[in-house]
Records
---
Amino acid sequence: MGPLEPDIQRIGRELAAAFPSAARHPLRSVDARAMELASSDAELKAALFRFVDVAPACRSLDDLARHLTGFLEELNGTPMPLAAAMRVAETRPGRVALGAAAARGVRHMAHRFIVGESLRDAAPTMRRLWDRGIASSVDLLGEATVTPEEADRYAERCSETLRELSDVTARWPERDVLERDSSGPLPRANVSVKVSALTPLLRPDAPELGREDAGRRLRPLLGQARELGAHVHIDMESLDSREAVLGLVLEMLSDEEFSDGPSAGLVIQAYLRDSGELLDTVLDIARGGGRRSPLQIRLVKGAYWDHELVEARQHGWEAPVFESKADSDRNFEALTRRLLDAHPDVRVAVASHNLRSVAHAIAYNRAMGGADEDLEIQILRGLGDELADALAASGLRVRAYCPIGNLVGGMAYLVRRLLENTSNDSFLHAQARGADLDELLAAP
Ligand SMILES: Cc1cc2nc3c(=O)[nH]c(=O)nc-3n(C[C@H](O)[C@H](O)[C@H](O)COP(=O)(O)OP(=O)(O)OC[C@H]3O[C@@H](n4cnc5c(N)ncnc54)[C@H](O)[C@@H]3O)c2cc1C
């Protein structure tokens, strides 16, 4: 047993005891049944994965329903209610009706994950989170961008969001834990941005092209965030865009123009076998950059595991991701320690719903003499709500990633979260099936 283990176990148990009671989430059991259905049927799961790929390109509910029924049609032995639904979908009015019904069905689920259609809708929820001791980062949904006009529109939405969010959050009451660490003030307005939405030209065989095109739209956003005192976080997507994304972010943030801001950050994915080397590169640049506000690094395991594995198998390549969950978890802990050791050159955000991964980060930081204020824990809204409440109640800084957008744009996000949750290896799945704390907190 490692020397840190007793602290990890104690902190994990303290946090678990601080989880709010299940009674506060009456809809949870309905969602759990939907997730159980998806996890028990491999073919349904595969159909949903294919649906995720096309959903962002759907322009209407009609379109969405046509694709969904098309994929479900290919399932063997489609259960009765689905067969009836597909008959309805044979006519245009039928498809519209089915689309509307499907939309109603997922709407209650969507509300759990998606905070609102617009910032105005979402602001009251984000204010309530703030009042409960939880900061936020806004993510504008609408992932794949195929035309320059869509990329322009996404950049405009980011710009409007930065402006409106700065206005709204300026009226919030002070919350010391959420607005300061030992490196200085932390912006209240925080926006997460996807490079794939800033350009239609992101291609693995020509990373330069995508990087330049996205750069033209990212640069004004960074300038605006600096003026407003807001934070911009660049999400990391699948491996085929990593070179362009990382190149772009590191280039911009090393630029003289941005040496005094804005507050900014990027993401490291611990499921990648080469993530340790990547962290070396990022730390070198963070240390040499002379930025006034240290770069924030969000450590995640990675959301594109199935995609990376399938892509590698199709090409006969070695998988770039670990193939055992324990390897990803162990690497996540190793990178957590390296990041915390790199403070104050970087700000550390550990993004996970896994109580063990989170307890490990808190325990290591304290054992090394770090202050709690120098570790931020991040969760996805809808998946880590109880953990966020427990962390806030324990006086720790926690930030919820809050997607905003319409349901069609949100479908891909929703289904991806659903599938992530139904994986047998997922921590949340183990928690939902009632695994005990010994199992949940066991060293990977
Ligand atoms: C605030 C926030 C922001 C995020 N931003 C991003 C982002 O920018 N880019 C991104 O890619 N992800 C992002 N994610 C998602 C994240 O990568 C994880 O998918 C998610 O948090 C689940 O990990 P976990 O630690 O919560 O749960 P756990 O259940 O402990 O871990 C699940 C993860 O383990 C890995 N895994 C599952 N099965 C295996 C296996 N058989 N072998 C190896 N590894 C496996 C996968 O990465 C899977 O997502 C973000 C998450 C949060 C909370």
Note: The first helix runs from residue 5 to 18.
---
Amino acid sequence: MIPPKPTPRPDKVSLHQYVRLFRKDLLSAQPQRLYRAWMAEFRTPFFRSYMINQPALIDEVLKKRPDDFPKSQRVSEGLKPLLGESVFLTNGEVWKRQRRIIDPAFEGGRLRDTFPAMWAASEAAVQRLSQHAGQVIEIEEETSHAAADVIFRTLFSIPIDHEVAGQVFDEFRTYQRSAPIVNLGAFIPLPRWFPRFFRKDTKRTAASIRGLITQLTEARMAEITAGSAPDDLATKIMTTTDPVTGKSFDTNEMVDQVAIFFLAGHETSASALAWALYLCAAFPEWQEKIAEEAAGLTPDFASISKLRISRDVFREALRLYPPVPMMVREANCPETFRERNIPKGSQVVISPWHLHRQERLWDNPDGFDPARWHSENGKTCAREAFVPFSAGARVCTGAGFAMVEGVLMLSMILKHFRISPEGPPPVPIAHLTVRSRHGINLRLERRK
Ligand code: HEM
């Protein structure tokens, strides 16, 4: 059985059909040939986009010369109302300063400190799921809840049941429903002055979420001043000064960063965990292996490194369903890629979705095979053609965090429950992250 993959569009479509497909779904708007191409060009009347799907080119853009390929402003504008000047959107010196303050909070040693909060969140997830034993549940909703819980517990030492945390989570769901299609600006031939697809409620919801986060941040500022703040990620970030400028974040800037930690940290982890669980339901032999391995799970950080099968499965889920399916950069100067001239200002699209299924690189690219990571081909591809967290200077700050969280949650859930797919297979589509068009329904049975 091949895990669900969107049906690609025919090779040739009119511009009108293309725009329509895009508005429907980013993934099925792409033709099959992109899974074999090293590079593809999209010409539009206003600007050009290039998708690069070859490791050497991606290395050049992400690792070797990130300053020449800043984040595309066309994409950023869709998220500005919610994220302001957050590290996800900024470029240049502002971004460098922000990373100098944020990165220490996610270093290896800190990860160990956040582990008890992650463990508590995974126990709470098992508790919530227990109420549905013997029933069919929509798992994306559950994994969103669990991932939001992890973020609030690790960042602010509060569980998702906390009143303000719960409100932020609810408002985010509304935001997602009304959010613009973020990557659209990079492909669709719209001039810069053209109004973007903001709905009124997108802006209202963004303002409301920011208001709630401001409450949490201000309260924390007061606790830090009073010397009574808990030792969590928020305190760490808010008390770190930039070694170069000697400044720390003020409340406003911290609100921007909390908004992105929440968005980048819970949407993505929720998507990855939901697909990992679906794959385990569809391939029960792997589910059994994880359950067996998880029998020895104890609440200490070191036990995570023993969850090897769970990690292989989680990585395979990240390969087949990378939560961030595409990333967009802008060429700051004229370039030549594969003997083609790339004008300054062109949009450069890196698609983990396509790279992770690149037919010229991966054995069995569309198949589910967690054992591949131990084969020669799998090891080479892991180094060269696997970028679920991006790579280089702008690599995801939460990559290490997410790998502990995802593997732990997967093992904890499968230790307690047996799951099986229910109804038609899910259809992957790209929202803010890769989700299933009609959710992912699983039957849940308690393990004896
Ligand atoms: C499975 C889970 C996750 C995946 C697949 C993921 C993936 C990514 C990717 C691909 C990027 C780069 C986006 C781009 O360059 O356009 C990114 C950036 C980022 N992620 Fe994650 N992420 C995950 C979890 C997290 C978590 C848990 C946090 C924080 C708690 C986080 C915080 C961030 C931040 C702050 C950035 C911006 C970094 C920068 O631009 O300098 N992510 N993530």
Note: The two ends are 28 Å apart (CA to CA).
